[in-house]
Amino acid sequence: MKHFMNSVFVVLIFITLFVLGNLAMNQSAGSTDADVITFRVAQSKSANHPVSKGIDKFAELVEEKSNGQIQIQTYHDALIGNDREVIESAQKGGIAFASSSTPNMTSFTNYFTAWDLPYIFENKDEVYQAIDGEPGDVIRNEMKKSGFQVIFFPDYGFRQIVNNVKPIQEPSDLKGMKVRTTNSKIEQADFDALGATPTPVSWSEVFTALQQGTVEGEGNSYSLLWDSKHQEVLRYATEVNYNYSSDIVVMNKEKFDELTQANQQLIMEAGDEAMIWQRKLANEREEEAKQQFIDYGIEIVEPNEEEMRKWKQAVKPVWDRFVKPGVADPAYVDLILETLGKTKQEIFE
């Protein structure tokens, strides 16, 4: 009997160890799903805009590089909030990532104010040279102080002046026109200098404002306007490239710092690759959207070199007003100009 009981005891121990072993193996096999890190990224542009597609590409690259261990859910069309709301949510950690146009970021650092100066960037090559160089690095370091890790800068495009009242041939034609602006003080000063009445309106409300006559015009890129169906409430465009707006994708700094070094590097690499991919798309899309405007019947005025000089001269006083300590930092403005190899005088001569 004693021998029998010992045998039973051994069998029970074996069965117990076998069951526990299988349980452990099953738990281990199921840990893949439990280890998946899920983040959200939100912004206000339409899902088919190049900025949105660049963010989608970023999410795709992150998932690919992490073998599915990091997944980023994308929310466009202001589903979670407007630019300001999603950026503040990312700053507080409500969401991990957010994107906004840079004019709406001037409340976090006045370095962005320099980017808003009219004609500081005159073509895309200058934009990329500044963003990819020391001026961009200054912004990246500065944003950390506000709790953000800059991931990449999607290409938004040059802003054109559009309206539903009349063709705008020269600055004087804007006199008294109510023009929607962002919260950027410089953009507001631009239209003030051009003789218009600058009217800050949240992007999500601009279509209705144009429809109801609250504003009569706005400044924006062809692609954003078309993809947001603004052609339905516009009739005229004037291609003056008065301001370049980049977008910026940021991540909550605490959440970024909590990641392993390998995952941090993975996310930054995905951002760099997405930015290169998105720039090509953005430039192709801008040309396509301009043609769509023409085909739709929007009248586009394209000033010649002499006429462009009038537009530049009209907004030159904006530099004198804003390039000062505490606003558009003079040293930072000089850094941008030095990086681009030009002077203020050359811009406005």
Structural class: alpha/beta
Q: Say what oligomer this is.
A: single chain
**Number of E-state strands:** 10
Shape: globular
Q: Helicity, in percent?
A: 40-55%
Work out the helix count: 14
Mean pLDDT: 91
| N- to C-terminal distance | 110 Å
CATH superfamily: Bacterial extracellular solute-binding protein, family 7
Quickly count the domains.
Answer: 1
Q: What is the H-and-E element order? A: HEHEHEHHHEEEHEHEHEHHEHHH
What's the CATH architecture name?
3-Layer(aba) Sandwich
Would you mind describing this structure in some detail?
By secondary structure, the chain is an alpha/beta fold. The chain has a single domain (36-348), classed as 3-Layer(aba) Sandwich (D-Maltodextrin-Binding Protein, domain 2), CATH 3.40.190.170. The protein contains 14 helices and 10 strands. The chain has helices at 2-34, 50-65, 83-92, 111-116, 124-131, 134-144, 185-193, 206-212, 222-227, 253-258, 261-296, 305-322, 330-340, 344-348, and strands spanning 37-42, 70-75, 97-101, 148-152, 155-163, 178-181, 197-200, 217-220, 236-252, 299-301. Belongs to the bacterial solute-binding protein 7 family.
